[in-house]
Amino acid sequence: MTDLNLDAQTALVLIDLQKGILGLPTHRPAADVLRRGIELAEAFRARNLPVVLVRVAWSADGGDLPTTAVDRPGPAVAPPAAFSEIPQELAALGDVVVTKRHWGAFTGTELDLQLRRRGIHRIVLGGISTSVGVESTARTAWEHSYELVFAEDATADTDADSHAHSFGKIFPRIGRVGSTAEVVAALKA
After folding, report:
1. pTM for this one?
2. No. of helices (H) and no. of strands (E), the chain
3. Residue 1 scores a pLDDT above 80
């Protein structure tokens, strides 16, 4: 990845780095993804750039759980509140927290409003799961004309082949792919 333009119109968006998701078995240790997410968040905060932490949660009564008939349904009941907690070491005062109820962070949330009101045109993405929350968010962001940068090593999936497909086939067509170190270096440039 070369010539990144991570200027004042750039935000970091981390998908589902929350206690319940970080406990899933992923192809890359979730602790490594969290550590890189923290590194990215600290670098963005140091430049006074927005950090958006997206989490998935549902009402305690489960009334807002997706109900579409599918072959591999999601949860039948809402997970406990602790499932959606963002680890204390990741969150900081001033971060934007967005709660989603679907795969993507744009559907039914204020993410687009929060970004546009801050003058954001470029998003650095990371999180879990690559082929679900991250990819769904990325596709919608691209359709909304945001420029995208993907921090590959700050992203993981429960399936290594799905992660490889997203990063090998999808993400290079809608954005730039690099590492946490490359993003941090671009922010310092």
Report:
1. 0.96
2. 7, 6
3. no
